[in-house]
Amino acid sequence: MKFTKVCERSDVPEGEALKVESGDTPVAIFNVDGELFATQDHCTHGDWSLSEGGYLDGDVVECSLHMGKFCVRTGKVKSPPPCEALKIFPIRIEGNDVLIDFEAGYLTP
């Protein structure tokens, strides 16, 4: 696994999201009660940023384009219209540094 530093922990306030990118891979980092999760940034239903145009309620992000919902822990769809899960990315915290493995994104079975 190749982890890349993308931000500091303090850059993602609790209950908020931050968009980070590596090449053509935009990833959203979500802070749920102090725990960080990383998913693909774009909704699987429409080309819409979840970090910049979504609403985080607990561990569920709602896309503001068509109101679809996803669990940021698993990437699974919680409410249609999306029917395809989000890709999730391995995330690691080292001190205050947040690192993501952009090459190891996967779908939860």
Which characteristics define this entry?
109 residues; Rieske Iron-sulfur Protein; mainly beta
Structural commentary:
With 109 residues, this protein is mostly beta strands. The protein has one domain: Rieske [2Fe-2S] iron-sulphur domain (Rieske Iron-sulfur Protein, 3-layer Sandwich). Helix content is 4%, strand content 43%. It has one helix and ten strands; from the N terminus they run ββββαββββββ. A four-stranded antiparallel β-sheet has the order 5-6-7-8. Strands 1-10-9 form a three-stranded antiparallel β-sheet, with no helix packed on it. A hairpin with a 2-residue loop joins β3 and β4. The two termini are 20 Å apart.
Secondary-structure map with pairings?
Elements: E1 4-8, E2 17-22, E3 25-32, E4 35-40, H1 50-53, E5 54-57, E6 60-63, E7 69-71, E8 77-79, E9 91-94, E10 97-100
Antiparallel strand pairs: 1-10, 2-3, 3-4, 5-6, 6-7, 7-8, 9-10
Short description:
The protein is mainly beta.
> Ranges with pLDDT <50 over ≥5 residues?
none
Structural class: mainly beta
Which strand order does the major sheet show? Answer: 5-6-7-8
Tell me the strand percentage band. 35-45%
Distance, first to last CA: 20 Å
Count the helices. How many? 1
The major beta sheet can be summarized as:
4 strands, antiparallel
